[in-house]
Please model this.
Amino acid sequence: MVYTAARVAAVPFMPVSIHTSEEDHRHFAEVLADGDRETWVAEVDGTVVAFVVLTPTWVNDLFVHPDQQRAGLGSALLAVVKSLCPDGFGLWVFESNTPARAFYARHGLVEMERTDGADNEERAPDIRMEWRPVAAA
Model:
């Protein structure tokens, strides 16, 4: 599973997942069935290697398999998000996940809020980032 592989590879930048693989599978089955969220995937040779889950204003998840990172898939998925959310969108990223924060900043997202993590499952400090389109001059 892309999510599990990406989370494991991201340690120590991300906290260790508090869920089992079975719980992750159940969660993403529910996500795919949720009509309020949209999921886009990137495939290589018929295998899903990256995905993004979003609503009209929010990115819930964006993960790329470690073997496919730095191949442009995350950038391509973020471009899809920008086209689907032309008025902007937000997301949360763990404060410790400096590679993800740098990726999002390169793509024009800015830090809007920092928390101590009390409201996320991992209880790890996080940052809300947002992307807003540049107004035409």
Summary: The chain has one domain: 2-131. The chain has a mean pLDDT of 90.
